[in-house]
Design a protein that fits this description.
By secondary structure, the chain is an all-alpha fold. The chain has seven helices and no strands. The model has no long low-confidence stretch (mean pLDDT 83).
């Protein structure tokens, strides 16, 4: 058995990889783009950590959120509202002119 085949076998079945390659070849461009995004997310360490993180079922109350925000403010320098808007690339005027639709 050659070295390349040993490497492939160590990382998964060559038959499965071959089947995956064949399926990928049959995908239309739009689905191929979605598959690339999925594969990138599956291999991204942050995405993996998030996917494997335990679900937080603890309800967040307004009081708890406010206490956490106050605690954070004691340990960190606050960020001016104008700076947050600039970082997001929006202006206060844009916010003032947003029209919200009523839920149906």
């Amino acid at each position: 058995m050659d070295f390349a085949r040993l490497i492939l076998m160590a990382h998964g079945s060559t038959d499965e990889k071959q089947q995956a390659h064949e399926l990928i070849e049959r995908l239309p461009p739009k689905q191929l783009s979605a598959l690339v995004g999925l594969l990138e997310a599956m291999l991204d360490p942050a995405s993996l950590a998030l996917a494997n993180a335990p679900i937080d079922n603890e309800p967040v109350t307004a009081e708890k959120a406010l206490a956490e925000a106050r605690d954070w403010s004691k340990r960190n320098k606050s960020i001016p509202h104008e700076q947050v808007l600039a970082d997001l690339g929006i202006t206060q005027e844009e916010i003032n002119h947003v029209k919200f639709e009523e839920p149906k």
